[in-house]
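Action item from last week, closing it out:
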Amino acid sequence: MISSVIIFKVLFCHLAYSACVKRKGVDVSTIVSKSQFECLKKEGYSFAIVRAHRSTGELDESARGTLENAQAAGMSDVDVYLFPCYCCGNPAEQVSKTVNSLKNLHYRTLWLDIEDNRTSPNISEWYWPDSKEEHQEFFKTMFDTAKIHKDTGVYASKYYWEEIMGNDYEEGKSVPLWYPRYKNNDPSFDDFEKFGGWEEATIKQYHPNVMVCGVNVNENTKR
């Protein structure tokens, strides 16, 4: 007869493993080939998030091919992200043209990327220069439009959310949060700080600019 102690140990280890193990994935902003996705899968990456719209207001022309290659390689958990151009205006159109450009392609969630872009060489054209109230109006229009088309999520750090939208602005809290934190390249969620109404995050971007399988990626982990 198996002792109750052994049963307890097996059950404890199983529960602890289930609670702690998270999936590893990448986000990309360049074309990724089928063979590169196959390589990423062999390296243990099980999901990908593909840039579909640039902060300059242009569609990312590589997104469609990257999504097709992910599907051909059997990478089934694929999302896209939209980096909006605030100064271009018309947030609803930015969402609609992004979604329309990816018709008939498989992806799950459209992530709205809320961050500053002060590393851009033409920074005066596309960062968030107006009041938080005006930024909030832009976001709400974009957010409401996105939810009509696809499952929606928000990418934001606590710092940029407070700077751009204000910490007490909670319009996005009904959808999953994807946040960046690079200290020690730690994939755990232990460093998460509540903001914007989010009590927890779904995805963490923890290691930027890593060369894997011949492609530059940001590493992420998902609950």
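Closing note: The helical segments are 4-20, 34-42, 63-72, 91-101, 123-126, 132-149, 158-164.
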